[in-house]
C-alpha cells in the first residue's frame, strides 16, 4: 500500500542520527555561505570566528554579511528539517537543539558568556525562522491527501 502513517516509537539511535545530520548540515552550509558571501564576494579572509564569535556588528559590511549568512542558513536548516525529520511536531525540538548545541560550541570557543545583544537577537531570529519554516514545509507534506488505492469493502 502506498500511503501509510509513520509509526511513532522511541528510537534513540534515529533521534541522535537526525540531530547529528541537522547539525552537520547547519555548519557545512553556514561555512559555504561564509565562503561565498564573505570571501568570494566581499574579499574577506576565511575564518571560523565568523561562525562562533559573539561580536556581530551591524554597522560594517562584514557584520551585515555574517547576519545574511546566518539568516540564509536558517532557510537551509528548515529545508533540512523537512527532509530529515519530516514531522511538524518535532521541528521546534530539532531547531532549538541545533541552535542550543551551537550556543554550547560558541561558549566553549569563546570561554565566556555571550553579552552581545546582536548575537542573541540573530540566533533567536534564526531559531524562529528555522522552526516556523520547517513546520510550514512539514505541515504541507503531512497535509497532502493520502492515496487510497484499494476499494473499501464492508462485510455485514
Automatic annotation (TrEMBL):
One of its GO terms (biological process) is protein localization to Golgi apparatus. It is a multi-pass membrane protein. The chain crosses the membrane at residues 20-41, 61-83, 117-138. One of its GO terms (cellular component) is trans-Golgi network. Its main location: Golgi. The keyword Disulfide bond does not apply. InterPro entries: Integral_membrane_SYS1, Integral_membrane_SYS1-rel. It is found in: Golgi apparatus membrane. Keywords: Golgi apparatus, Membrane, Protein transport, Transmembrane, Transmembrane helix, Transport. Signal peptide: none annotated. Involved in protein trafficking. Belongs to the SYS1 family. PANTHER family: PROTEIN SYS1 HOMOLOG, SYS1. This is Protein SYS1 homolog. The gene is EOG090X0FH3.
Amino acid at each position: 500500500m502506498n500511503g501509510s502513517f509513520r509509526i511513532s516509537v522511541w528510537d534513540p539511535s534515529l533521534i541522535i542520527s537526525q540531530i547529528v545530520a541537522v547539525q552537520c548540515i547547519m555548519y557545512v552550509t553556514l561555512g559555504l555561505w561564509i565562503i561565498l558571501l564573505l570571501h568570494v564576494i566581499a574579499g574577506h579572509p576565511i575564518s571560523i570566528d565568523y561562525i562562533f564569535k559573539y561580536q556581530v556588528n551591524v554597522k560594517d559590511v562584514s557584520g551585515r554579511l555574517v547576519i545574511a549568512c546566518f539568516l540564509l542558513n536558517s532557510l537551509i536548516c528548515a529545508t533540512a528539517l523537512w527532509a530529515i525529520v519530516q514531522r511538524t511536531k518535532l521541528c521546534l525540538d530539532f531547531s532549538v537543539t541545533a541552535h542550543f548545541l551551537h550556543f554550547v560550541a560558541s561558549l566553549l570557543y569563546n570561554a565566556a558568556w555571550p553579552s552581545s545583544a546582536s548575537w542573541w537577537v540573530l540566533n533567536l531570529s534564526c531559531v524562529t525562522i528555522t522552526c516556523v519554516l520547517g513546520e510550514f514545509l512539514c505541515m504541507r507534506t503531512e497535509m497532502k491527501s493520502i492515496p487510497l488505492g484499494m476499494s473499501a469493502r464492508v462485510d455485514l
